[in-house]
Description:
By secondary structure, the chain is mainly α. Helices cover 71% and strands 0% of the residues. The chain is built from five helices and no strands. It has helices at 2-14, 17-75, 77-88, 105-108, 125-133. 0% of the residues are buried.
Amino acid sequence: MKLRRMSYKLRHDFLSVENVVLILAIFLCLLWTYQSVTAMSRNWELTERLATEKKELELLSVEVETAEFENDYFRSDEYQELLARKYLDKKFKDEKMVVMPENSEQAKNKHQVVVKEMEEKDYSNFEKWIMYLFPNF
């Protein structure tokens, strides 16, 4: 008898059309939310990877450009002349070598540049906001 009552209540009270539609709607909303979060996290990861690869590509292109400039320099007549002078002791006609003495301490310190360290100022929170909102202020 109790089993019959429970099956009746289950069929007519809990598994009514409205309750089934409500449960199905909740399930679909949860599924849609899960899929949205998954897609957003995947897009975020792909964007980060793309940015990393772009930086790497830019670095490699700069390295290639530098290598090309070096190759052009090594092929130049100026570099060939420098190598011939250095390793083969080649020189032009009537060219004389002048040996200069070492610089004195007075000459070394003549054009010294004094570097002043900048003091770091502690800004208040309000000043930081003003500097953030109005960078030219």
